[in-house]
Design a protein that fits this description.
Shape: globular
GO molecular function: metallocarboxypeptidase activity; zinc ion binding
Number of helices: 13
Cofactor: Zn(2+)
Subcellular location: Secreted
Bound molecules: zinc ion
Distance between the termini: 56 Å
Radius of gyration: 21 Å
Protein name: Carboxypeptidase A1
Structural class: alpha/beta
Strand content: 15-25%
EC number: 3.4.17.1
Largest sheet: 8 strands, mixed
């Protein structure tokens, strides 16, 4: 496919040309701005900006509490208008990313350089981003290497017909209490799927070696859904790296996709999601309209014995618990808060990465129809959401060199939550 012996630069030019031929969305001259809104009035101003559809803004971190940063990708043609708007309303901003496309080019270059196919999970490169096909073949290798410990379940098919797979880690028993972990429900959060791959390998390495994980797997099962939004993920590789939603069509709209983290049956339709199919937080026509969501709902209900449910996103470095749709504290708030504190302490012990923690609504903003509000409503007490690295320097475009450190530190927090779940049966 590529001329033999060509240089890295040559490969890069080749890949950019290939991208153009394949009709990939380009982000040349797009900037990511970090806006600071000091008070509620300024937050409202940013919300006005958000409603100006013609600007085609992409909020990476939406407006929330006064004082918390707001990150927005601004297409090149809108940059002057947005900066003028911010200056006119006294909103401060800094440029976080000068040119989004140059980060995307670096990411592509890195992927091309390390794309060799591996024949086992030992030679698999965990320090680069992978396509859906590569991740699916990784899962098959892992299952083949550890048939006594790992199996692959298909819980459904996506809107576009792709299989939806979950890895089951089990040492036996019958419908044991279980821990669920999912990554990648928002497709552009690439460090999450990459971390999911690393977690899968880590579980097979640590069983029988690490005392805690061995104890966990001797009485509980772990379910891991690495690519929770396969259609969206495939689309981030083929057409638009910034795609977040599913790829379902909505009748009466030319806009595609539903936010699968606003589509769950908990506070569905309340404030904290959009009814406009053209926005990135579109909730869908009805709860569970997205087959990627419904497949998990059906699985969780039919399993009936899931004790911890952890849904992993990026970015912002947060560990969150219910609720997202209402301000009322969750009945288990104190225990959830204490456990979150222990988990982020364990996480920070490795590289010093600091995570904040708290309820979704208090820590970021109101979000309705989110995953863990639903799982909590089903009686799954240990329901958590992570937002992994970073805090915005690269945002969704985290360099591949940070994949393994991110996964390693996150694993310490996951292990803390799983161990607590094991030791506090309910
Ligand atoms: Zn997300």
């Amino acid at each position: 496919m590529f001329p033999a012996g060509c240089s890295m630069r040559g490969l890069l030019i080749w890949s950019v040309l290939l991208g153009a031929v394949l009709g990939k969305e380009d982000f040349v001259g797009h900037q990511v701005l970090r806006i600071s809104a000091a008070d509620e009035a300024q937050v409202q101003k940013v919300k006005e900006l958000e409603d100006l559809e013609h600007l085609q803004l992409d909020f990476w971190r939406g407006p929330g509490q006064p004082g918390s940063p707001i990150d927005v990708r601004v297409p090149f043609p809108s940059i002057q208008a947005v900066k003028a708007f911010l200056e006119a309303h006294g909103l401060g901003y800094t440029i976080m990313i000068e040119d989004v496309q140059s980060l995307l080019d670096e990411e592509q270059e890195q992927m091309f350089a390390f794309q060799a196919r591996s024949r086992s999970t030992d030679t698999f490169n965990y320090a680069t981003y992978h396509t859906l096909e590569e991740i699916y073949s990784f899962m098959d290798m892992l299952v083949a290497e550890h048939p006594q410990l790992v199996s692959k379940l298909q819980i459904g098919n996506t809107y576009e017909g792709r299989p939806i797979y979950v890895l089951k880690f089990s040492t036996g028993g019958n419908n044991r209490p279980a821990i669920w972990i999912d990554t990648g429900i928002h497709s552009r959060e690439w460090v999450t799927q990459a971390s999911g791959v690393w977690f899968a390998k880590k579980i097979t390495q640590d069983y029988g070696q690490d005392f805690t994980l061995t104890a966990i797997l001797d009485s509980m099962d772990i379910f891991l859904e690495i690519v929770t939004n396969p259609d969206g993920f495939a689309f981030t590789h083929s057409k638009n790296r910034m795609w977040r939603k599913t790829r379902s069509l909505t009748t009466g709209s030319s806009c595609v996709g539903v936010d699968p983290n606003r589509n769950w049956d908990a506070g569905f339709g309340m404030a904290g999601a959009s009814s406009n199919p053209c926005t990135d937080t579109y909730r869908g026509k009805f709860a569970n309209s997205e087959v990627e969501v419904k497949s998990i709902v059906d699985f969780v209900k039919s399993h009936g014995n899931i004790k911890a449910f952890i849904s992993i996103h990026s970015y912002s470095q947060l560990l969150l618990y219910p609720y997202g749709y209402k301000a009322e504290p969750a009945p288990d708030r104190d225990e959830l808060d204490q456990l979150a504190k222990s988990a982020v302490t364990a996480l920070a012990s490795l590289y010093g990465t600091k995570f904040k923690y708290g309820s979704i609504i208090k820590t970021i903003y109101q979000a309705s129809g989110s995953t863990i509000d639903w799982t909590y409503s089903q009686g799954i007490k240990y329901s958590y959401t992570f937002e992994l690295r970073d805090t915005g320097r690269y945002g969704f475009l985290l360099p591949a060199s940070q994949i393994v450190p991110t996964a390693q530190e996150t694993w310490l927090a996951l292990r803390t939550i799983m161990e607590h779940t094991l030791n506090h049966p309910y």
